[in-house]
Amino acid sequence: MRALWLVLTLVPLARATDPPEVSIRSGAYSPHPPTIAAQSNLVESAVTVYDSKGQPTGGFTVADFVLSDNGKPQPVTVFSELHGGGAPASAAKAGDRGSPPPQPHSVALFFDDLHLPSATLVKVREAAAKLIAAGLPPGERIGIFTDSGAVTVDFTNDTAALLAALPRVRSQEDPGNRGMTVCPVLTPYTAYVIAENLDPAVKQAAVYEAMGCDHLKYEEVFGMVEDLAHSVWENSRHRSTTTLDVLKIVVSHLGKQNGDRILILMSAGFIDDDRMSAEKTALIDDAVRRHVVIHALGTGGMGFSFPQMILLNAMADASAGTGGRLIHNNNDLAGALEDLASAPTVSYLLGFQADDPDGKYHALKVSLAGRNGFRVESRPGYIAATPPRENGAAQQRIDTLVSSHTLLQDVPATVRVIPAALATGGYTVKVIVDIDARRIRFASRGKLHLQQLTFVTAIRNGRGDFVTGKQAIMDLRVKSATMTHMQATGIHAVETFSLPKGSYTVREVVREMVQDHMAATDTPLEMP
Q1: In this structure, are residues 398 and 454 in contact, taking their beta carbons and an 8 Å threshold?
Q2: Domain of 474: which CATH number?
Q3: Of 347, 375, 410, which residue constitutes the final position of a domain?
């Protein structure tokens, strides 16, 4: 593993603009995005059946399952019974002698240090230390990963190295998660509830709290509370998106390992919303196709409330959709971790051909026909990818250019790569893209100047293997004054990655939409 965290910040260095002038959409980039192919529309889901005692059970056939898409029954076209960490069941050959050799078994311990409070993280580290110190069975390797990128240990059977790394895993939680905001005190959960209008009583309580703090009138603080809630929630949402992005990177790396592949997500929980459905769908799709089982360990302790249900929603979806389990409401973290680290005994892979690629969220349901006393867990839904249109053709050109070694300068873009050593080990790498706004054409609509810039950064190691990447789209609808300032100062994109030492090549592709021009550069990066 070469990179396990990336944060993208795009900063158009014009004078301060209103939000409508500049908007940015960003997400993780991979050369082959895990989306449903338009020509086949294959939707797959890992499915686990539990008996009355809560144990995974097998022995079912395709005829036992009923699968529906938005309530419409679908014929199952893909079916496998999986044993261990996702390998299809196979019978032993006649004449085999002796015990079979140990099967490879890779476990990714993923510490969600962006959302785990310090006191809880200490307990989680202790549980992980107990698991590792007990010794690794033959063929098993463990890796340690964090969504902040502060600590990374690639898969190894070196227990001493794993134990030495654990104390360096520390909480990177936003103080706002503990409600340390201005009056009124808003946590990410209360901010989310207010911003999404889920519970008027929560908003009313925050308004009354603000009135008591500053002795203001109701109408004076109502809008202020809404603005504050949106601000707190957007900050929290960015951290949640980062967690999903990094999980996808770890799943990709784990999927390249041999044998059973298990990822254990240890987290206090994080809020996801409808805008993150695409990221969550991509994560589940990628894990299913790479035969990676995602288990989730909720660290909220005993008790289960509505806020906890909201916080655990993404973890529950990821585990159910990949044949894994979610353990919460449990104070025995060491026991739960030991249980999850074992390969699941049996699960199933079901797939069907979606007939309505409408770009919308589809609810999935899997059940057993005429079989009582069993519980079935599977992914709750997916986003049906629409056929590629004009923008899809542009994306294909971008992907082709990213994967090639062609150098282009049709967009006036200059790339600077600046590494900086971290005290905890590894490096922070800034990739800065400078664009001369005087030399790109803008379209006009009334008094606005329009342009769309796409930035893709792909990092490859010394062997040329793709390590990680990020794509962002900057929509510009700027006024004349802002346009003048941008032409004087330029447009600048800053991407920040966390990387261990090594040799890399930074591949940067930039596309401007008005004339459909592109630039592509390769920048070598050596970090001894």
Answers
A1: yes
A2: 2.60.40.3880
A3: 347
